[in-house]
Specification:
Layout lengths: L8 E3 H8 L3 H9 L7 E2 L4 E4 H15 L14
Antiparallel strand pairs: 1-3, 2-3
């Protein structure tokens, strides 16, 4: 049975996928107060979509890759 996620929020799996991190790394981001939960329970937290997008953009700007993860291009053999 899936948990209800209110409109404008993401569950932990969706948030981790969007940020390109594991659930463990997501907990670290929360512990470091780079992201806060906006509801749910301890086992099934919700995150405000706007907060997740802001963190995504901040991390992309810091990494120098504003389009998301960059895959290395293959060099011709």
């Amino acid at each position: 049975m899936s948990q209800y996620v209110p409109p404008g929020h993401l569950d932990a799996d969706q948030t981790a996928t969007l940020l390109g991190v594991t659930r463990g790394n997501l907990r670290i981001l929360v512990h470091r107060r780079q992201l806060t939960t906006s509801g749910g329970t301890d086992r099934h937290p919700h995150y405000l979509l706007a907060d997740v997008q802001a963190l995504y953009e901040e991390r992309a700007a810091r990494s120098g890759h504003p389009g998301g993860p960059v895959r290395p291009e293959r060099q011709p053999a």
